[in-house]
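Dear colleague,

Following up on Tuesday's group meeting, I ran the structure prediction for the two-component complex that the binding team flagged. I've pasted the input sequences exactly as they went in, so you can double-check that nothing got truncated or mislabelled along the way. The structure tokens for the whole assembly follow below. Feel free to forward this to whoever is handling the docking comparison.

Inputs:
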Amino acid sequence: MGGRRIVQKIISKTLHETLEQSSEEPDPDGFVPLPTLTVVICAYTLERWDDIVQSVQSLRDQETHPDQIILVTDHNPELQERAFEHFPDLEVIPNRERSGLSGARNTGIAAARADVVAFLDDDAAAAPDWAGRLLAGYLDPKVIGVGGWIEPDWEVGRPGWFPTEFDWVVGCTYTGLPTAPLPIRNMIGANMSLRREVFGAVGGFSHDLGRAGTLPLGCEETELCIRAGRHYQDSVILYLPDAVVRHHVGARRGTWRYFLDRCLKEGLSKAAVSRMTGSGPALASERAYLRSTIPRALGRTLRPGAGDNPLSTLPALLLGVTLTALGYLAGRTRQLFLPGPDGPPVASPADPASPAEAPAADRDAPVRAGRTALGLLLPLAAALGLWAWSIQRVDVSDLGGFGLPAQLPWNYWAAVALLLLGFVGALRRRGRHPVWPAAYTVALLVIQRATSALVYHTLLYAWTWKHIDIIDRLLANGGHVELGNQLGAMAPYDQWVGFFAANTALIRLLGLNTALAYAAWAPFASSLVLIVPLYLIFRCFSRDQRLIWTAVWIFFLGNWVGQDYFSPQAFAFFLYLGVLAVVFRQFARPDRSGLLRALDAGYPLGTRPRQPLDRRARLLWTLLLVPVIVAIAAAHQLTPVMLAVGLVALCLSRRYRNLWLALLACAIPAAWDLSSALAFFKLQLPAMAQTFGNLLANSQAGGGTTPTGLGPVTISYLDRGLSAAVALLAVAGLLRHPPLRRAGMPLLLLGISPIPLAVANNYGGEMIFRVYMFALPGLAFFAAAALQPRPPAARLQRPRTALLSLAVLALLTAAFYPSYYGKDRVNYFPPGEIRLVDQLYRIAPPGSQIIAATPNFPDAYRNYNEYTLWWLSDDDPASTAALLANPAGYLGGQKQTGWITQQNPRAFSYVIFTRAQYADVAMDGLLPPGSIQRIQASLAASPRFRVVLRNADGTVYQVLPPASTAGSTR
Amino acid sequence: MTPLARFPLTRFSLTRLPLARLPLARLPLSRVPLAATGWVTLLLVTALPDAAPLRIAVVSVYLLFLPGAALLHPLRPALSGLRPNEPGGPGTPGTPGGPGLGTAADEDGRGAVAAQNLLLVVMLSLSALVAAATALMLAGAFSGDRTLVVLAALTSAGALCPALRPAAGA
């Protein structure tokens, strides 16, 4: 930064001096000779003859006469002859290279003899002092090129809609370029010059981008300037706005069509330049242009009373930017299918710490473009097509013990198999562009998790309904939360209200009535957003794309726990992974150096450790993470604890020892727990203290459920098997690659940090599953490592390794589907069941009591603050025994239902049994088998219970008050 | 490494801000569109009918990306690894070819940095939404429009806040 200012000072000082001196008489004592100048004009058509004449005349009229003027004709013999006759004082030569502007310019360069070669367009006329000012810039030896101002000379006048910011479309200087002498990145071809030795050092203009005839693809100047800048590290290209050239702009160029077409082509050219030089330097000034010039132009047009920037330029501004961006995207997309070096841009040659594997790394030999794209795209498209076809006719009305997988047709499984094959195939070549595995991963998530949203026409899973009911309550009462324990078991949802508050605001802003409209897509969406943080985390520990993407797949195949549904957990998990991605990327500290570390960094499957940042940057990153940690603390109970535990565990490694960050991650949730959630802890702390450390009780899954029946039992073995398989693979990976184990120690620590929590608390029978989910990123990474061969790795993945990956992924997939979709008989609610519950809540007056076997029915918690809810499966064994001995008598008792009419004469108790509750009781063993049937039989026979609603999916009984049995009519 | 006591906030003197050289009535024009997005969204929410497709699209895009982008904006140049803006002067066309200014980005492909930026923007936007909605609910003053007002104010503040300079010696 400082160096540039010094250069600027020198240049302006030198300029002042030389401009003064050039107007004086030559003084033998202090005369500084200007370098010699060759001007090259390139012409291709006789139509521009008048412009050419004008151009040449302007050069003849220069105050400082150029030493050599060359006119190059581009493969046009007639023009060549006429120019040769007409301009005896010029060197008129034909283009000896490929047809096009680049070839013509290169021919001119070859014929030049002076120190400086300047280029002038054939439809441009130079101001009289142009040459002098240009040459004055070269007095500083640091300057390798000088460009000037290009004034548009509109043939028919500037159109009203044409903004000055887009004058580059017609090849002129645009608003946004500086108005004072300044170093710049590249020059515009109509008014540019370079030292002749530069061409000798870096070569001439590139042919790959050049201009042929009237088709402007352009940007060869940009590419050349970037090339020159890379070669001459300390030099500058100077921009002198005083060296003016007037560029003739024909009537055709002032049309909308030309404007839009040029913008599109410019985008394509920039994509081509990015490919050749890397998008960093190629787009640096374009980014500045988009970030400041265009918004400033927009601001100016919208300001009232804008004089020279009327509102009519607004469409052109917006369309111009859009089309250029589209052209760029189209160009880049097209490049994905082209052979050649992919991945990170060409490294700067001056980088001393270039990774040692650069020369050893295999540059993939160029493959035939068509075959590559087709080979990768075909399985993907075919898999998605098969999947879309297969889910058209899936019958979910009678799911059995194995849930959805038993109902999925053969073409679904064919799609899955095809996707697996395609993915493993996409990873065969190491250097392939990561967009392909990414596309396959997205397709995996579509096939895995978007299926439920499309196959089930009602919302799946009772807990999703519960969350929707919470949001409905907040929508109805205007966002009033109860921080005390008035709501009983539902109180924690108000005490950690972040997720529900955000959704309430969203629904209000969107103008929807309820979250039902989008909640079905939550599994797909919440898994989709995990791709980016997982990729970033894994990338911190490996440079091998095969390993990274295999790890991502193992994560998604291993994540069977189904915590991706519309819930605070899914949201908080995304933020948790995001925080970790930032921590691993930005919060590295200097590590022990030594031979072992260096070897580990060079390991092909590993990567160099992240560079540590200075204290100020780290503080700013911490500041940036604070709102995210606050959001996690406000949204979920468990995730902030997992985050704190993870960050504390990371402090055990030297590389990620960030004590302040860990402290912050502990303090913020603690503050939340002591404020908003205080009532919860006051109530629960004694119970929590009692169960703390009880490993058996806390690690028991499912809170009292026992899988019953062939399907559920098989599924429970499968999901346990899946978890065990991932864990075993992780151990295998740790053993197979010791360098990865050492270098990936932070990730390993993160992976095992949740495990102690299994001892701490039961979390409603869920803890063991959550621990697995939070450990899964770490486990997936090392599990993927187990599938990679020990280096040296071949250029093409050996068939044996590919087959191993395929087999393992296929096994994981086979175990995933029953584990994830196997319980859908319990989770799916047919429309009839929803209608029944809807009717129940219409007829039940507020203050009533709703009794059911389990809460597993849709909309169970509607208006939960107005009803008393009683789930029979929650009772202790003694009560359950009493219930089953005499259901009607037990339920009719004073303590159970008698109290309600005394409290509120208009309220009643209702007992509801639905199909899903039957399934829940049968498959999860919450009550002894046949319990509901027995209760129903008893209720039907009793005069105290009257059927008020009945359909194919369930029955609702109203409990009549004791006094009315005498006069009841059945 | 500078000790915490000499944290550059004290070096962050107002006279170095480009803002100080302009009359106070002038806003940094290039940042006005970003600052205005929240208010435009609010306008659309009040003007369009419920569940109109345009309203859904605009609100979704705004809530997912813009508060995060605005919050990130002042810190962008100072966080190594993100491309810094050129300070001072109208849009300068870029620096001459040479090594990039972010030391932490050396092994990164541009894809990873772009992915990280996207992740940051989405995370911060969602966190802002959660924080705003929760704060309003806890204060007993919740409504959808008020949440949007808070977010729009946050977006404007972040967009108009002058960018922190990159660390000295970068």
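Chain A has 41 helices and 14 strands.

Cheers,
M.
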